[in-house]
Design brief:
InterPro entries: Homeodomain-like_sf, HTH_AraC, Tscrpt_reg_AraC-type_HTH, Tscrpt_reg_HTH_AraC_N. By secondary structure, this protein is an alpha+beta fold. The protein has helices at about 5-20, 110-115, 140-150, 155-175, 180-190, 190-205, 210-215, 220-235, 235-255, 260-265, 270-280, 285-295, and strands at about 25, 30-35, 40-50, 50-60, 60-65, 70, 75-80, 85-90, 100-105, 130-135. A six-stranded antiparallel sheet has the order 1-2-9-4-7-10. Strands 3-8-5-6 form a four-stranded antiparallel sheet, with no helix packed on it. Residues about 300-305 have low confidence and may be disordered.
Amino acid sequence: MDGLPREHADLLALVARHATGEGRIDSSYPGVWFWRADRPVAKRKSQALTLSLVTVVQGRKEASFGEHALTYDPGRYLVLTGETEFDSSVLEASPERPYLSVCVAMPPEVVARTLIALADSDLGPVDEPVPAFVSRLDPSVLGALCRLLAALDEPAERAVLAPLIVEEIVFRLLRSEAAAVLRRAVRRGDETRIQESMAFIRAHATDRLTVEGLARRAAMSPSHFAHRFRAVARVSPMRYVKHVRLHEARTLLLRGARASEVAGQVGYASASHFTRDFKSYFGVPPAEYARRLHAAGDRPVEAQQTA
């Protein structure tokens, strides 16, 4: 094809072999699907449910985000962030030369894991947020797409190689102009993962918890996890752990536990450390707090305040 690398003809042949009917055609691998249109399609509402790479191999399409329109055709790709609504229209298609494209979902956890691996690389800042991005198709991404589609037919290659090739595509896009869109898509999922981390802390407060371990569980780098955690919870991860433990200690005291036993029950290795933290947070040492509770008829100290 004029002006396009030889590999593009290979990709076109692979897509055409799978896209045998109009509309969306799912492949044998979850997260890879095809689109075919035999005639132009008027503008209609569309939605991207997940972060995805859309590569047109024949025909031309337009996606509109408000007043911002993006046109993509062979040799260019579109990256869409998840949960994005837009208007789309097929501009060029015919029965002889149908519109054909391949779509690859990029799991946010794969993007996050790759970002951690690239932590020492200069990926540049995340500029003004955009819901989509169009760019020229890099030969390395084109080659990876060809290998991904070629792996779909053989069960062993599909199971073993396809996930690795998707990771390669994510890696290469993170080292391209599309990096900011991928990073923004992961950031949009940060709040949910931080909330999940907070729930995990509440359920496992007595365990030995570290920022590194919590970040690993959330598929973030420790520094990014700590930054995003503070933005959501308004305190650092370990301070949140401490607050959860201290509130659990107060609950145990309310239930009649002995102050000398509570430290170990809420995850403190040092009783003196627990006493210092408790006094700093509640204003009195745990033993004194328990004594006041008993004197007040098992009501919390705060309940004795008057309006």
